[in-house]
Amino acid sequence: MEHLYAVAFKLFLMKRYDAVSISDIEKESGMTRGAITYYSKDKRGLFYNVVRHYLIDTQNPELKIQKQDCESLGDFIEEYVRSCQETMAKLQKIDTTIENGSRAYMALILQICDFFPDLHLQYLENRNKELLIWTEVIQGAISHKEIKEDINVISTAKLFMNVFYGQSYLDALNPGLNTTELKLQFQNIYSLLKNQ
Q1: What global pTM score does this model have?
Q2: Alpha-carbon distances, residue 102 vs 21, 31, 53, 140, 148 (angstroms)
């Protein structure tokens, strides 16, 4: 199953859902149609399962970001960037011919809206979980007097998230997510928030 999902994910990253045929999946996976339909009854079901696996389950921030290992907001920023680097490495591992993993990933996310509104809602639920994590970390940093206390916690959490999504969008127009630049932007915000 993992092989089939990885092959289908690669194809869905490289082309739109409607441009990928079961024959393409057969050819790339080396599996027969019968073997493919054993795991998913049709292409739509396979797309659903692949998106759920790679974009919903794997990218669940509660599982992806190890905030319990972080003693500070500074540590969390390091962990968040490391998690982004890990995601980019996984995309590259699936297929080294994908020139811009960020662009392909974003295009796939946008297709969810077209084909599976329920998965889109689950994707948005992950973003809400991420907002909650940022909020908890920032609140903890205030409590430990790591950062200034006169900030709006939710707005600050959204600021960090918006920097990530903005950087992801801009880098989708270039070679891919520049995690060095992302880290620099996060650290600039962090330095403005820190108690001196």
Answers
A1: 0.84
A2: 23, 28, 18, 31, 34
